[in-house]
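ping. complex inputs:
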Amino acid sequence: MSVLVDDETRVIVQGITGGEGKFHAEQMMEYGTNVVAGAVPGKGGQEVSGVPVYDTVDRAAREEDADASVVFVPPTFAADAIFEALDTSLDLVVAITEGIPTQDMSKVHKRLSEVDTRLIGPNCPGIITPGESKLGILPGNIFESGNVGLVSRSGTLTYQVVDNLTNRGIGQTTAIGIGGDPIIGTDFIDALELFEADPDTKAVVMCGEIGGEDEEEAARYIAENMDTPVAGFIAGRTAPPGKRMGHAGAIVSGSGTGTAESKINALNDAGVPVGDTPNEVADYIEDFL
Amino acid sequence: MTTLDLVDHYGGSPANFLDIGGGAKAERVANALDMVFSDENVDAVVFNIFGGITRGDEVAKGINDALGQFDEIPKPVVVRLAGTNAEEGREILNDELVTVEETLEDAVQRAVEYADAEVEQ
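pong. complex structure:
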């Protein structure tokens, strides 16, 4: 079992004719993902690595019976690409693009509340159900099928923790990179809900970072709603206030909100142990299982 | 950012944080290394790459390019490559110029040791 994606998921790659789109479409197919179409305006009729390209997501979805898409479209056009996927009523859209203007994302965010399509990202590594399917840029070889769910704001941190888990023989049900931007689709609570409902997920790793209050809200959700044990990691303990740390959303504001300390305390109060190092998170998970 | 936290955790002190960004190519990596070397507070450099969209071979080429222009490497460099094309990257890296470590923890600890040694000199 897994959440959101499996070996049945049929995927459109939006931006498949670009360098990153093509490279990662190939990587996804090599991993086993059913990449059934590409969608790029003006490039309909072409073929990329054996995958038929359509002018629109709508056409691609109808012709190839697709239910999900991955967006590798440059920031300026990425919001339009997401809107196109939402209007096609796909089940899932995964936006990898970094640097989508916040104003564009606020429009996307409003539209999301009116549709059934789920968005993951943007500025995220995507989602993977090990051994079945990956939608995004996650390095598939480090993952292993198992019973730990993982949700993270940082791609690299996801890989780091997964590597620590896999090296101990602890596999994953699904790993979701929710992205490092201030406005995102699926958030911690959405992902935690999915893992709580998945009978095969026996423990969950939640990797947060400085900025915003999503981790604090997730901590409250865990305390009130979850039976599945959760272990956490929070990046940015040593981050200076007022500096944006790599991600657009990773900033301790001048007024002092969004600190690592506040998030760690909230998680600890909710009974969630927080590792000092990624490897310590794997220690906690090993204890849970 | 986690790398910085670990530098602190293992008794070091971060002088400079530079995120090379997703999908960095060799030229961007070489520029990044030049900038970090130009910071006189820096006693050692740790490169931690766990590539998804970033490819290990591109990073390795950038590191080699940047270091190749020096007769003597200004500060010790520790590199940890994992993820997409990491193996290819490790093969490309010139281990006469850099110290290659397998895990994040080892790389950070090694860099902190080097930095302490530089300070003592």
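Residues 10-120 of chain A form a domain with the Rossmann fold fold (CATH 3.40.50.720).
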